[in-house]
Design goal:
Helix content is 33%, strand content 19%. The chain is of the alpha+beta class and 98 residues long.
Length: 98
């Protein structure tokens, strides 16, 4: 059985607030475990999965866990890793304009 996430990255709340600030619906999935990304974002007819890593931490501290790495390698849909609210917004805007 996969280990559950011990805690969320420090910037998760900031990322959620920024996404909700543009009118996106955001569901936090960070407690699901098993490598599932932290956020499900719905905006302008698109569903996006975002794994939030703390951009203030060193690159080695931002690595995906083994469960996350496995999940990303096997997931056949859309998902990405972001390290800041700005990066999350840029990604969401880019995905919606396509």
């Amino acid at each position: 059985m996969p280990r559950y996430a011990a805690r969320a990255d420090a910037n998760l709340t900031e990322v959620i607030a920024a996404l909700r600030g543009i009118g996106a619906q955001v569901e936090s999935l960070h407690r699901v475990g098993g490598g599932v990304p932290d956020l499900l974002v719905g905006w302008r007819g698109k569903n996006l999965l975002l794994e939030v890593k703390d951009g203030e931490k060193s690159p080695s501290k931002r690595n995906l866990t083994a469960y996350q790495d496995d999940w990303f390698r096997t997931w056949e849909g859309q998902a990405t890793v972001v390290t800041s609210a700005k990066e999350a917004l840029e990604y969401v805007y880019e995905q919606v304009k396509e």
